[in-house]
Amino acid sequence: VQLVESGGGTAQAGGSLRLSCKVSGFDIWEYCLAWFRQVPGKEREEVAFIDGDGVTNYAGSVKGRFTFSQDNAQKTLFLQMDSLKPEDTAMYYCAAECAPDEAGGFRYWGQGTQVTVS
User: Fold this and answer.
1) Which residues lie below 8 Å from residue 63, measured CB to CB, with a gap of 6+?
2) pLDDT, tens only, 2-26
3) Residue among 27, 42, 40, 38 nearest 108 (CA)
């Protein structure tokens, strides 16, 4: 199983970025999925979560600005980030398959992609 993020970069405040997470090794529609972010020195924060029934939840700090979607045929997750703020600056990670006994609560993680908002 492999998760590979892309799409990070630098954006101006008020701008947009779209992150992608390509999954290989299993069918994503069977599992819960999530995007996290982490700033050095701070705890990892769950940004958005999709459960096995397709219900999406967002952190209060991004609700109304970020949209989590998935393309099951392409086995790809997306995080559309609009109205970006400097406080959105972080390393963003995708995660798959809920696993309460695993670190962070997910079994599989991507390597991360940096988002910087100035």
Assistant:
1) none
2) 999 999 999 999 999 999 999 998 8
3) 27
